[in-house]
Amino acid sequence: MKKTPIDIWLTDPLNNFLGRQTTSGLVLFVAALVALVLANSPFADVYHHLWHNEFSVGFNDFLITKTLHHWVNDGLMAVFFFVIGLELKREIMAGELSNPRDALLPLAAGVGGMVVPALIYLVFNPSGEANDGWGIPMATDIAFAVGIISLLGDRVPLSLKVFLTALAIADDLGAVLIIAFFYTSHIDFPSLAVGAVIMILLVTSNLLGVRNTLWYGLLGIGGLWLAFLLSGVHATIAAVLAAFTIPANVKISDKGFVIHIKGLVSKFEAANTNDVTLVTDEQLHVLRDIRRVAKEALTPLQQLEHAMHPFVAFVVMPVFALANAGISFPTDFLGQLASPVTVGVAFGLLGGKVLGIIGMCFILIRFKWASFPEQTGWRHLFCAAMLASVGFTMSLFITGLAFSNDTLILQAKLGILMASLMGGAAGYYLLKRAG
Q1: What is the pLDDT of residues 79-128, one digit of tens each?
Q2: Residue 171 CB partners (closer than 8 Å, separation 6+)
Q3: What domain count does the chain have?
Q4: Residue 58: left (phi > 0), alpha (psi -120 to 50), or beta?
Q5: Are 413 and 336 found together in one domain?
Q6: Is the pTM here over 0.85, yes or no?
Q7: How far apart are CA 378 and CA 430, in angstroms?
Q8: Does residue 415 belong to any structural domain of this protein?
Q9: Domain check: are 332 and 309 in the same one?
């Protein structure tokens, strides 16, 4: 295939950069760093006021008015949770969570890594408004955790990467359930009933064989997401539910695909050609058939996940970080670091994740209910537990749901940043030495 200068100098290098596992974590880190710098610069007021600007979506008397910050957290992050839902469904059907025996260790580790951090937080914040933040240290940031472990390349056993990924996915599922059951405000039952009807329609569409992703998008966003937004149940839950209704079946089997493609390739070879770069009408029809058959050999779920992942990784999550990671460090910085909320979040993420994950792994391996991932030992599992303490994106998201008090939000964010930086750095260093 002949490459043009634009391919050589721009397209190929850009695709190589975006295709690396570490790139999304790097972009997220840069976005968070930019937010921190802006929030502590002479432009701090401009930065904070930007996210409080309001704008409305709707028509006539039906308008939804929210601040830019709310649109990012309730709207843009719904896309993030939609992709999380697609990943969860794929993993449950044919991934690391499909085999109960293989999934037992990371699932149990994920549960331990959620329960123990919450208990540690509650020890420091047993009552009052701060008590509502118990869900903050329970989350793991899959982009950062997997990105850090990918930096080490072949030095890390592949089975450990699989273990950490499955653990983080189980953690995401737990975070979704926590948001649904514990961080939902007042419920408007008529709106929720409308959402239930749309959910039934989505499931029925799947059962009837509807494969048009635009149809699911219209119903999922224009119907289910909007109904949940108005109902009081957090709108990100609608995104996960909608993702689970996306068809995960193909219209043509592997063997059928091969047979069809071979026949179409033969037709293309036999078609009339010309001496210019344009294809003939006969070739055009064959190419369209090849595209149709290729599309039928893919599941709508995998098509959507593959298409939306770059948008989530390089737009949604960095914008979320810009909107939420901007902490203006107070003059009494040391005093805020010693607050029960900051200490509870930091110790919950750092100590709680390690204790919970290693504790559950020890129980399962000790009683031979599960075994070590291949080529790993306790040192590797300890390092993976340290990386799981990077709670950045999900922890910041739950902070916004748990607290309305600006001081408590600041304290929680300080704890998240401290734990994420220390856990990520320590996990990387120890794993590099573990070999």
Answers
A1: 888 888 888 788 888 876 677 777 888 889 999 999 999 999 999 999 88
A2: 110, 113, 114, 138, 139, 140, 142, 388, 394
A3: 2
A4: left
A5: yes
A6: no
A7: 12
A8: yes
A9: yes
